[in-house]
Amino acid sequence: MKAHNTDHWFQQPCAEPKQLSREQAQAHQLDLTKPAGSLGMLEDIAVLFCAWQGTNRPRCETIQICVFAGDHGVCAQGVSAFPQEVTAQMIHNFVAGGAAISVIAHQLGADFSVINMGITSQLDDAPSLVNTPLVPGTQDFTIEPAMSEKTMLDALELGRKQVTNRNTSADLFIGGDMGIGNTTSASAIYSALLDLSPEITVGPGTGVNQQGILTKQSVITKALQLHQQELKTPFGVLQRLGGLEIAGLVGAYIACAQQGVPILIDGFIATSAALIACRMNPACRDWMLFGHRSAEPAHEQALIALNAKPILDIGMRLGEGSGAAAAVSLIQTSLQLHNNMATFSNAGVSESEQ
């Protein structure tokens, strides 16, 4: 496979956060009229945005949200509580404004789009739908690779284009996912990349019962055994076990880091893409912030592996980018505090002598 060749765009260097701006922001935080560290993670977020944007007046106003959608051939193994046609039905719901992520995106005034990476149904065009399917879903990865190398590379490129084909860069990028069966794909990726058994990585997903969990564990075990020799690189893992929407997320994440656009990672599925992106191009981790801790049990293992501290921990497990989008208001609050609080230097407030 040529996918590890550095001629590929996704292994080109990422932008570098500005260390001087980081240090200036940290000094500014110490001068704000509050005990040092008393705003907790809100202080850390503001410092990150200053480093990312090279300023001491950070902003989070222009938000891009892309929901990547794809169908999964492994659904033939009975791994989901929902039939596969729900993927297409939910895409209609997204573009009609009725899904959770659609509602939050509207609230945020975000640039919102849904990308049809490849599903089994035909979709009519719609204003917020990028209707460019690559193939009609992945293959059943218990029998063969989920996708060909070409399809994987095309999916990465399609994800990249959602970031690079903009007139102006966003202040923040959120990637969402939709695809019946994608928790099985993500669990398999977790098992392969983190060397965890399916008993650890498989959770309830969209609501399967205990028998469904056992089925998912068995399916993933079979796939890991079938593709064992090809799972030694992130490219092999993505091609053999991934989903089209997961590949789209990987491409978008790496492109954001190369363009210097901060990324807010969602939950279980999105974090599987973040794991792959960080293995393909480790420098992209510097541009990631994590929106929430998913209720899916293995998500915690991935957060530990990525040295990630999520903003929210409120029991969400919907996907779509909804957990990340729900955290945006706290990011905006963090930046408002950084930009508008008085400082000890100018407010006439005495600092602690300790």
**CATH architectural label:** 3-Layer(aba) Sandwich
Shape: globular
Mean pLDDT value:
95
Overall tally of structural domains:
1
Structural class: alpha/beta
Write down the Rg: 20 Å
Explained architecture:
By secondary structure, the protein is of the alpha/beta class. The protein has one domain: Rossmann fold. Helix content is 46%, strand content 9%. It has 14 helices and six strands. A six-stranded parallel beta sheet has the order 3-2-1-4-5-6, with helices on both faces. β5, α11 and β6 form a beta-alpha-beta unit. It is globular. The N and C termini lie far apart (60 Å).
Which labels suit this protein?
six-stranded parallel β-sheet; single chain; globular; Rossmann fold
Write the layout of secondary structure elements.
Layout lengths: L18 H13 L9 H13 L9 E8 L15 H11 L3 H9 L2 E8 L10 E3 L17 H16 L7 E7 L3 H13 L3 H4 L8 H17 L7 H8 L2 H16 L3 E3 L2 H13 L7 E3 L8 H7 L16 H19 L3 H4 L7
Parallel strand pairs: 1-2, 1-4, 2-3, 4-5, 5-6
Helix pairs in contact: 1-2, 2-13, 4-13, 5-10, 6-8, 6-9, 6-11, 9-11, 10-11, 11-12
What is this structure, in a nutshell?
With about 350 residues, the protein is of the alpha/beta class.
